[in-house]
From TrEMBL, chain A:
Lineage: Bacteria, Thermotogati, Thermotogota, Thermotogae, Thermotogales
Subcellular location(s) per record: Cell membrane
Recorded GO CC terms: plasma membrane
Highest taxon above the source species: Bacteria
Name by which UniProt lists this protein: Branched-chain amino acid ABC transporter permease
Chief location category: membrane
From TrEMBL, chain B:
Record-given protein name: ABC transporter ATP-binding protein
GO biological process per UniProt: L-amino acid transport
Protein's organism: Fervidobacterium thailandense
Cited InterPro entries: AAA+_ATPase, ABC_branched_ATPase_LivF/BraG, ABC_transporter-like_ATP-bd, ABC_transporter-like_CS, BCAA_Transport_ATP-bd_LivF, P-loop_NTPase
Lineage of the species this protein comes from: Bacteria, Thermotogati, Thermotogota, Thermotogae, Thermotogales
Keyword Nucleotide-binding part of the UniProt annotation: yes
Family: Belongs to the ABC transporter superfamily.
Keywords from the UniProt entry: Amino-acid transport, ATP-binding, Nucleotide-binding, Transport
Pfam family, one: ABC_tran
Record's signal peptide: none
SUPFAM superfamilies noted in UniProt: P-loop containing nucleoside triphosphate hydrolases (SSF52540)
Any one GO molecular function term: ATP binding
Length: 303, 236
């Protein structure tokens, strides 16, 4: 087996990029889980809605691309709040299984909504760009072609994750989010409206998923209502891999998952068809070997 | 006028009738204590006043306004603070962050700074540990943090649920001294204790709670001298 260094570097970068996108969605899973012990399976679908919003914002309403993306992030943030208020809030004191089933229902609902309103067929995302060439330009170093878009996506992912960490660890509302993840009733005793903080958590998680979606669509431009299914699932796996409830873990888990996937198919190109199965193998292994995930702590059951 | 008045309060946990129509009053500037054995309904009473539990019937009147049924954050913002049973420190937040959680809704930065200095003067150990995670503190330190966190909201009424529970005797003394100091600053205190002696010694007025009913009330000095109380709660 001869390894072509060019392909190795390119795939490594691709893995890093895809992993970063998993991470952006995974932090949403992990934050919502940390606060409500709920897996919001709809993040993959929120990601797709982010793509549709940006696409229609640019093509139908003719907004500039950056503005269309901004509107998409705001729209999905609102969507996240609405999902929480309508679907999850009434179930706060219900058994967890009810919320879990509801989460699956929300996911199906959004997918069906997209099929009905946006159509079941694939759409070309690059139509949203005034200048499509940006998606195809490359840096050339020796005989290695490095697509510019990968670096742009990596940069934006890094900035978004940095902003998220600043919010969670350096702002008042971030402090309230962390407090809620430890103890909801006591947080409410501090004069904090817990529902508003939970709504805020859904808003930023959803906007991050949408941002991941838009960048996903820049790299893999053909999209349809079920485009979010696989990345959403893998982001969930990444969150478990890294240690669900841990934001750092979600980032590490996402990036590692993206890189591992790419490395396996680089080393064993014949396994390409099974690419999507690796994530599940990793999930099974981590659940067997270290159930709390890479950075997860063993949860202390709440009294 | 009483600052806090409870009228015919009934609280249920499903079919369990935990509070059976109790009434009591807290006068402004006083320390009032609710004593009673384990399971009498002390925590339920305070949690209901704080808004964590909704009463089935009855009124909770704060400064002339009915507040039963309001959410806990709204009740806290009105100036009623609960230092909960078991301290309930945020273990994943630093000591400083725990304190700032108490001051979450305050806009007066200078006042917050002053109060911070005040609680650090009450509990110098917290100042030394301000960058440590709450979960790493000892039980006594956590109790001090819980009280300080409550003070950071600058409450008008401070409810404390068994602040002496599980503390070494020397710390129990210290906690009761601190409660007196806080009261001297003008904070009205509603104190719940199983340690009836300690609570009655520092309080002005007391109520005895037994399985969801108030069976006795009086000035704390009288209760300390009361034969019934002596037998049942003071172990004399
Ligand atoms: N969450 C709960 N669910 C059911 N019963 C409860 C609950 N909390 C307390 N109780 C019951 O209510 C009664 C009063 O409890 P509590 O207010 O905790 O008493 P205290 O604080 O005086 O020890 C007890 O009989 C207790 O078993
Ligand atoms: Mg109790």
């Amino acid at each position: 087996m001869s390894l072509n260094p060019t392909i190795l570097i390119q795939n490594l970068l691709n893995g890093l990029m895809v992993g970063g996108l998993y991470a952006l969605i995974a932090v949403g899973y992990t934050m919502v889980y940390g606060i409500l012990r709920l897996i919001n399976f709809a993040f993959g679908d929120v990601m797709v809605m982010g793509i549709y919003f940006a696409y229609y914002g640019a093509t139908l309403i003719r907004l500039s691309f950056p503005l269309a993306v901004t509107v998409s992030l705001a729209g999905t943030a609102l969507l996240g709040i609405v999902i929480d208020r309508l679907a999850y809030k009434p179930l706060r004191n219900s058994p967890r299984i009810s919320a879990l089933i509801t989460a699956i229902g929300v996911s199906f609902f959004i997918e069906s909504f997209a099929v009905v309103f946006f159509g079941p067929n694939y759409k070309p995302f690059l139509d949203a760009l005034e200048n499509k060439t940006i998606a195809f330009e490359s840096f050339v170093i020796g005989n290695v072609y490095l697509p510019k878009i990968i670096f742009i996506i990596l940069g934006i992912t890094a900035i978004a994750l940095f902003i998220l960490f600043v919010i969670v660890y350096r702002t008042k509302i971030g402090m309230a989010m962390r407090a809620i993840s430890a103890d909801i009733p006591t947080t409410s005793l501090m004069g904090i409206n817990v529902d508003n903080v939970i709504g805020f958590t859904f808003a930023i998680s959803s906007a991050l998923a949408a941002l991941a979606g838009v960048m996903w669509a820049l790299r893999y431009p053909s999209f349809y209502p079920y485009t979010g299914f696989v990345p959403g699932l893998k982001a969930f796996i990444a969150a478990v891999f890294g240690g669900i409830g841990s934001i750092g873990g979600a980032v590490v888990g996402g990036i590692l998952l993206g890189v591992i996937e790419m490395m396996i198919i680089t080393l064993f190109p014949t396994l390409m068809q099974y690419k999507d199965a690796f994530a599940f193998i990793i999930l099974i292994v981590i659940l067997l070997v270290k159930p709390a995930g890479l950075l997860g702590k063993r949860t202390v059951e709440k009294v | 006028m009483s600052i806090l008045e409870i009228e015919g309060l009934h609280v249920y946990y499903g079919a369990i009738h935990a509070i059976k129509g109790i009434s009591f009053k807290v006068e402004p500037g006083k320390i009032v204590t609710l004593i009673g054995a384990n399971g009498a309904g002390k925590t339920t009473t305070l949690s209901t006043i704080a808004g964590l539990i909704k009463p089935r019937r009855g009124k909770i009147i704060y400064n002339g306004q009915e507040i039963q049924g309001l959410p806990p954050h709204a009740i806290n913002r009105m100036g009623i603070c609960l230092v909960p049973e078991g301290r309930r420190i945020f273990p994943n937040l630093t000591v400083m962050e725990n304190l700032m959680m108490g001051a979450y809704n305050r806009k007066d930065k200078n006042g917050v700074k002053q109060d911070l200095e005040w609680v650090f003067s009450l509990f110098p150990r917290l100042a030394e540990r301000k960058n440590q995670l709450g979960g790493t503190l000892s039980g006594g330190e956590q109790q001090m943090l819980a009280i300080s966190r409550g003070l950071m909201s600058r409450p008008k009424v401070m409810m404390m649920d068994e602040p002496s529970l599980g503390l070494a005797p020397i710390l129990v003394e210290e906690v009761f001294e601190i409660i007196k100091k806080i009261n001297k600053e003008g904070v009205t205190i509603l104190l719940v204790e199983q340690n009836a002696v300690g609570a009655l010694k520092i309080s002005d007025y007391g109520y005895v709670l037994e399985t969801g009913n108030i069976t006795l009330e009086g000035h704390s000095k009288e209760l300390l001298a009361n034969e019934q109380v002596k037998k049942a709660y003071l172990g004399l």
